[in-house]
Design brief:
four-stranded mixed β-sheet; Glyas_Bleomycin-R_OHBP_Dase; alpha/beta; about 25% helix; 2,3-Dihydroxybiphenyl 1,2-Dioxygenase, domain 1
Length: about 130
């Protein structure tokens, strides 16, 4: 059986607020909001979903919550942009906490890092591909 990466889901206090933040900060658009507002999904090449923490906890039990005042989890979400500097400025203006200003990597990619309203680490980067 062949498998592959299908998307990411982030547990948050308020799924609708998280989706609204990603619209303002990163220019994403909502694809779906559940009737209960416990789940929101964003448009993109791969799904990015937000699930209310209380709803997630019912199914999996306790987990470490994403919070701005805590250290970020050892994972990041990547948002690809042709203009990383403008994307970084937009995100910070929308309330993202700056982590690393835009800079170039030795392989030619431009990257920067912010944390979203819940403390999730987000990389803003130029497109990349593996040769």
């Amino acid at each position: 059986m062949k498998t592959g990466f299908g998307g990411a889901i982030v547990y948050v206090p308020d799924a609708v607020a998280a989706a609204a933040f990603y619209e303002r900060a990163f220019g994403m658009e909502r694809k779906f909001v559940s009737d209960s507002n416990a789940y929101c999904e964003m448009h993109g090449a791969l799904p990015l979903g937000f699930v209310q923490e209380a709803f997630a906890q019912e199914g999996i039990g306790a987990f470490e919550r994403n919070r701005r005042e805590a250290k970020p989890a050892g994972i990041e979400l990547c948002v690809v942009s042709e203009d990383v500097d403008a994307a970084f400025a937009r995100a910070v203006q929308a309330g993202a906490a700056p982590v690393a200003e835009p800079h170039d990597k030795p392989w030619g990619q431009r990257v920067s890092y912010v944390r979203d309203l819940n403390g999730v680490l987000v990389e803003l980067c130029s497109p990349w591909s593996v040769p």
